[in-house]
Design brief:
The complex is a heterodimer of chains A (302) and B (330). Chain A is 41% helix and 11% strand. Chain A is α/β, with parallel strands linked by helices. Chain A has one domain (5-293): Rossmann fold (3-Layer(aba) Sandwich), CATH 3.40.50. In chain A, strands 1-2-3-7-6 form a five-stranded parallel sheet, sandwiched between helices. Chain A has a two-stranded antiparallel ribbon with strand order 4-5. Chain A is globular, with a radius of gyration of 18 Å. By secondary structure, chain B is of the alpha/beta class. Chain B is 37% helix and 19% strand. Chain B contains twelve helices and 14 strands. Chain B has helices at residues 24-38, 50-53, 55-61, 73-85, 104-112, 141-146, 159-170, 219-232, 250-260, 275-286, 306-312, 317-328, and strands at 21-22, 42-46, 66-68, 89-95, 119-123, 152-154, 176-179, 185-186, 201-205, 211-215, 237-241, 244-246, 263-270, 291-296. In chain B, α5 links the parallel β4 (89-95) and β5. In chain B, α1 packs parallel to α7, α4 (73-85) packs parallel to α5 and α8 crosses α12. The two termini of chain B are 23 Å apart. Classes of the chains: A alpha/beta (302), B alpha/beta (330). Chain A binds chain B through residues 68, 108-110, 116-121, 123-124, 127-136, 138-139, 174-175, 178-179, 181-182, and chain B through 43, 64-65, 67, 69-70, 72, 74-75, 77-88, 90, 105-106, 109-110, 113-115. Chain A: Residues 13-285 form the Transketolase N-terminal domain.
Chain lengths: 302, 330
């Protein structure tokens, strides 16, 4: 069911708030990644304020959906989204990367409830997502006694869903394709993978460093259902996630085309901003740009 | 004189020529079935080596709880972490050269740092793999795994103890590495032999020992045979089988070192960084004594029969006796 304009606007507002918090926390930390988290703000707003079944007061809710962040270096966007969703006070975001903080430079499950896993070394998230999805399916088929419900859907498909956000550069890791093969073989339709296709990695543009295209065809060849959307359009992204829920014969990957550095026009698409934080002065300027852009982001897919 | 520790309840055939011989990997097959019966969350993953790892014994019993990974050890490790996140108790099996040889970083990040109760089962470890040669003779796994915070490291002495180690590992909250061998070796412990993850097992205990032989894995049997022979020539010793290298049973190790004054360690692993190193690290800080570490001397293995290779690399009964005699003469 389509989102109302009001819902869309509300999610866009959340994405703006997440972007502002990202800038503030990166400036306070003095290190960290800028481009990826900004580009992912719309997707995280969609997850934490619309898509996920979750309870910020009860991060271990048994029936929750799982969100695995494979490209752990983008975790500032997750911290910001979790804080705005009520997992912890937004002020705590300013402890990012500081000694004693629960907000480690790369996410650690045991330090902050709600993170689901520990990540940073690339290529490992989809394997873990596949393990969770496989376990959920074992449990549901055991409870039901049959892998198929009376409406013709595998029971695993109507239970909790497992989302796995990956980077695009990360697709260069061999382990990803081991996991893609496994999920395809086992038809893990309770997985929706999301690739943040922002085309940058540390050493340059992905297609220069190590070409990934044709990425969609590669996933199709491994028995995945592939959707491509504008990842900075919350309504389009949510529609793709809904479509994935209707695909029950194979896992789905959403290739989400995002603009790295989105929201700060001066740094959009600039790979130099992959791995560095804004200075204090730049931070002030970036916040101003995010606020000026507020409400003016053209929503061409709406 | 027979100085076998009666509390160890070793096999009546312990020194007999016809003692039964089975590979420790058989204990993996049996143990996972027992653990699987006790806990419905136990699952077994295998990377295209179901027969030789004995994972197929579990597969036959619990086909729905066996997960074939194909030849993909990195995916196997992180996927096992995912299964554990969702409440399963995964045992993942492949040759130690690949598991943890190939998937070390996945084990470090998704299992150890994440403190997932994944049981990493490294098969065909050591030179006694035999004809396969150096690529498949894992000699660095104990070192790799014991360095990881939160990891328990167990090297069973025989198939029976391996069975018990698997059952105990299934009940342990954290990650565990268990090392298994390919070759059939004497089954000298019995179902009555005590096994506790935190405890070393005294096999041989003389009143006035000159040397303490500390061994791990199936070479603990060779250490016991060496001690018995030495006793007949008047050299008395203690033999400790240290199955759990981490956490180390410091109390028992310390007592043996204090009583004997000299220590010989025996392992089918690089002498650098493995079991002997763990003992040397501990004793150097708590009770420095002269130590001789028998292990592979900073080199790779090669093809041959297990017996030829253990003799060549100085890990057979005769070499253990030589090392003990050298201290006894001091």
């Amino acid at each position: 069911m389509a989102l109302t304009d009001e819902q869309v606007r509300s999610l866009e507002k959340q994405a703006e708030a997440i972007r502002e918090t990202i800038i503030q926390m990166l400036v306070a930390a003095g290190s960290g990644h800028t481009a990826g988290p900004l580009g992912l703000a719309d997707i995280f707003a969609a997850f934490y304020f619309h898509i996920l079944k979750h309870d910020p007061k009860r991060p271990d809710l048994p029936e929750r959906d799982w969100l695995i962040l494979s490209n752990g270096h983008t975790v500032p966007v997750r911290y910001a989204a979790m804080a705005h969703a009520g997992y912890f006070p937004v002020e705590e975001c300013l402890t990012l990367r500081k000694f004693g903080s629960r907000l480690q430079g790369h996410p650690e499950r045991l330090r902050l409830p709600g993170l689901e896993t520990t990540s940073g070394p690339l290529g490992e998230g989809l394997s873990q997502a596949a393990g969770i999805a496989y376990a959920l399916r074992m449990d549901t088929s055991k409870d039901i006694g049959s892998p198929t419900s009376d409406v013709g859907l595998p029971m695993s498909h109507v239970g909790p869903r497992v989302y796995c956000i990956m980077g695009d550069g990360e697709q260069e890791e061999g382990e990803i394709w081991e996991a893609v093969m496994f999920a395809g073989k086992n038809k893990l339709s309770n997985i929706t993978a999301v690739i943040d296709r922002n085309n940058i990695q540390i050493d340059g543009m992905t297609e220069d460093v190590m070409p990934l295209e044709p990425l969609a065809d590669k996933y199709r060849a491994f028995n995945w259902h592939v959707l491509e959307v504008n990842g900075n359009d919350v309504a389009a992204f949510i529609a793709a996630v809904e479509e994935a829920k209707a695909i029950y014969e194979k896992p789905t990957v959403i290739i989400a085309h995002t603009i790295p550095g989105k929201g700060v026009p001066g740094i959009e698409f600039d790979y130099h901003w992959h791995g560095k934080p804004p200075s204090k002065e730049e931070g002030k300027q970036f916040l101003k740009e995010i606020r000026t852009m507020s409400g003016k982001v053209p929503n061409e897919y709406a | 004189m027979n100085m076998l520790n009666p509390d160890a309840k070793l096999s009546a055939k312990v020194f007999a020529d016809d003692i039964e011989q089975f590979p420790t990997r058989d204990g993996f097959g049996k143990g996972t079935i027992e653990a699987g019966n006790a806990d419905p969350n136990v699952v077994v993953l295998c990377a295209d080596l179901a027969e030789s790892t004995r994972a197929e014994w579990f597969e036959k019993e619990f086909p729905d709880r066996f997960i074939e990974m194909g030849i993909a050890e990195q995916n196997m490790a992180a996927l096992a972490a995912g299964l554990a996140l969702a409440g399963k108790v995964p045992f993942m099996a492949s040759y130690a050269a690949f598991n943890p040889g190939r998937n070390y970083e996945q084990i470090r990040t998704t299992i150890a740092l994440n403190r997932m109760p994944v049981k990493i089962c490294g098969m065909h470890a050591g030179v006694s793999v035999g004809p396969d040669g150096a690529t498949h003779q894992m000699l660095e796994d104990i070192g790799m795994m014991r360095m990881l915070p939160s990891m328990t490291v167990i090297v069973p002495a025989d198939a029976e103890e391996a069975r018990k180690a698997v059952i105990a590992a299934a009940k342990t909250d954290g990650p565990v590495y268990i090392r298994f061998g390919r070759a059939a070796t004497p089954v000298f412990t019995t179902s009555d032999t005590p096994f506790h993850i935190d405890k070393a097992l005294t096999l041989w205990d003389a009143d006035a020992p000159k040397v303490a032989i500390l061994a791990t894995g199936s070479l603990s049997y060779s250490a016991l045979v060496a001690a018995q022979a030495l006793s007949q020539e008047g050299i008395e010793s203690i033999v400790l089988h240290v199955a759990t290298i981490k956490p180390l049973d410091e109390e028992t190790v310390l007592e043996a070192a204090k009583r004997a004054g000299y220590v010989v360690t025996v392992e089918e692993h690089q002498a650098m960084g493995g079991f002997g190193s763990a003992i040397a690290e501990f004793l150097s800080e708590h009770h420095p004594v002269p130590i001789k570490r028998l292990g592979i001397a900073d080199q790779f293995g090669q093809s041959g029969s297990p017996g030829e290779l253990l003799a060549h690399y100085g890990l057979d009964v005769l070499h253990i006796q030589d090392a003990v005699r050298a201290f006894a003469r001091v």
